[in-house]
Amino acid sequence: MHQTVREFFFRPNGPVASSRFGIVEDDAHIRIITTCIRYLTFCAALTNTAQFPHISSWASGHFESYVKYLNKRPLINYILGHLADHIGKCPRTTHANLSPLVSQLLTELTPDNPASQLLENWVSNTPLLNQAFASQGSSDTAEQFRNEILWAASSLGFHRVAEALLIASTQINLHRQYQGLLPISIESGHQDTARLLLDRGAQIEAQTRLGYTALHLAAGNRHEATVRLLLDRGAQIEAQTRLGYTALHLAAGNRHEATVRLLLDRGAQTETQTRSGCTALHMAAWKGHEVTIQLLLDRGAQIETQTNLGYTALHLAVRNRHEATVQLLLDRGAQIEVHTCSTYTALHLVAENGYEATVRLLLDRGARIEAQTPAGYTALHLAAENGHKVTVRLLLDRGAQIEAQTLAGYTALHLAAWKGHKATVRLLLDSVRIEAQTRLGYTALHLAAENGHEATVRLLLNRGTRIEAQTPAGYTALNLAAWKGHEATVRLLLDRGARIEARTRSGYTVLNLAARNRYEVTIQLLLDRGAQIETQTRSGYTALHLAAENRHEATVRLLLDRGARIEAQTLLGYTVLHLAAWNGHEAMVRLLLDRGAQIEAQTRLGYMALHLAAWNGHEAAVRLLLDRGAQIEVDAFSKCTALDLAVENGYEVTVRLLRERLL
Fold it and tell me: Cα separation of 154 and 300, whole Å?
């Protein structure tokens, strides 16, 4: 009520005083008190219904619904803030007349009514009401309830509800999951709520679990006006998150020029770095925001500052394909040949990712096309390895050396074949030596076959590559395809005439390699195509030995089914049973014995399967061999029994088992 109106109605000798419109102050206070108590009673009655479950079972959605309910009743704020004043100005002689109204209100404030939890503190401290009010339940529970409501109000931006809760003595700096109320209201963009919390003493530097303050969140969410408010209230402009981000980093990374300008005007440092070494300029370049970059450079940002990984703003711009940003940075003097910590130049980065337009731009601006990484990779190598055919063509048109080799001797053709990029291989084959070898003697065909790139293998064969070319270790393309179990590639090579019995320098055939690595489907194919099952390596190992030594039970079963000799011996006289016993593979020992393996067969040094199992302490294998009739007391040529070997190597359980069987 305006003061002049108040004086008009309340002046004792005024024209209204003796009329029917005259207002007696005491009567006015009583009327206001009556209205307020009735309104609170009405609000409490509405929430005492089935609209809300018992507060002990409330989830976040219930708190949000209750906040929305309170937000529709703004008179509550006036009542909480001013009812005590009206009661204080009302003659105590009239309090008795108000008792029925008070009793009706308190009747509604039952323990399961959210209004009871909301108003507990306020009622306990309000004259007239506190005389008849008995606190319901635990005050800690009520405080927690009010904190949850305040949290929801701050998140939703209902500043009137937040104000009501603050009047009701709710804590404002309480953390929930390490995140304060002020930061969450800022992040949600509710400036009025944030201002209210600040006015009521919220800690402006309160941090989230990740170290974000209100200023960080406002800057990162493009809330310029809130940033200004926080700075005016004393927020630390250089405060950093756990990862080292300042407000300037976050504004620059979120493409908000106005906030960046405001922070710079207020003294934000352009060269502050995050834990990973990023400045605000890096953040803007990463997102490709030219206007912010221009602003930062105009304010003194260093264009060549590098991150912990050695990235400059130019590197980040090219890596994210921001061509206009690259152009701007180069125009502002960025050095085009600066290396990252992995010694990649900007050209390497864009070639690796196949960004043709940016490659063209960098070449036009003088990037060295033959610049190499420590491993000897040029831009052409990286583009070919990743199958960027268009970029490869561009680099070749600009003079890239097609036969350039990495330190390991790989050309662009080798890398494209290794990764199976058929289209890139076809392009390179028009101008490159198809039989070029790496330092280890691999041709493009070897690499394509080893990695199972059937289409690339077919292309290379169609273009005349030698199918029987060998590496210095003697591997052909067929050996390598079988070694890795690439059945389709093995089939293709066989169809094109590859020799199925080709051997490596160690004497491994295609079948030996497939058996060693447990590729049953490839083994089946090779046997169907006529591979010799008993061919031995230089050490005398057959495919069956290799499968057994590497514990491939299914492969052993397959080879036996296809006629492999179970008693075949290596140069040292080992049978498959010896190898299975030596490795303690009980299931395979059982399989071999069931298939007729000789339990007393001896190696060149006179060792039987029992000796070898005991030597390595394989109790289960020893027990099985004993159960199948192995002789304990037989000596090897070294005059050692199985018991002697177990004792010598300290296998107490095996020793005990053998001694029990001797009794």
Answer: 39
Q: Phi first, then psi: what are they for 553, rounded to 5°?
A: -60, -45
Per-residue confidence band for 114, with pLDDT thresholds at 50, 70 and 90: confident
Two structure tokens written together for 354: 């196949």
Ranges 118-132, 299-313, 364-378, 387-401: which has the least confidence: 118-132
Q: Letter for the amino acid at 271?
A: E
pLDDT tens digits along 394-424: 999 999 999 999 999 999 999 999 999 999 9
Type of residue at 488 = A
- Find the mean pLDDT for residues 215-230: 92
The residues, ordered by sequence, that sit 6+ positions from 640 with a Cβ below 8 Å of its Cβ are 611, 648
User: 3-class SS at 176?
Assistant: strand
CA within 13 Å, CB half, 236: 13
Burial (CB < 10 A; 0-12, 13-18, 19+), residue 68, is middle
Q: Which of 251-283 are b and which e, b meaning 16 or more Cβ less than 10 Å from the residue's Cβ?
A: bbbbbbbebbbbbbeeebbbebbbeeebbbbbb
CA–CA dist 285, 291 (Å, integer):
10
Residue in 73, 145, 149 with CA at minimum distance from that of residue 112:
145
CA 599 from centroid of its chain's CA atoms = 55
Coil vs helix vs strand at 51: coil
SS3 179: strand
As a whole number of angstroms, the distance between CA 121 and CA 142 comes to 9
Backbone angles phi, psi at 247, to 5 degrees: -60, -35
Give alpha helix (H) positions in 109-205: 114-124, 139-156, 159-167, 181-187, 191-199
Give this prediction's pTM. 0.75
Side chain identity at 107, as an amino acid letter? T
Q: Among 618, 624, 609, which residue's Cα sits nearest to residue 654?
A: 618
Q: How far is CA 225 from the centre of its chain?
A: 34
- Residue pair 261/295 in contact by the 8 Å Cβ criterion: yes
Range with lowest mean pLDDT among 18-22, 165-169, 529-533: 18-22
Instruction: Please report which residue ranges of 476-517 form alpha helices under DSSP H.
Output: 477-483, 487-495, 510-516
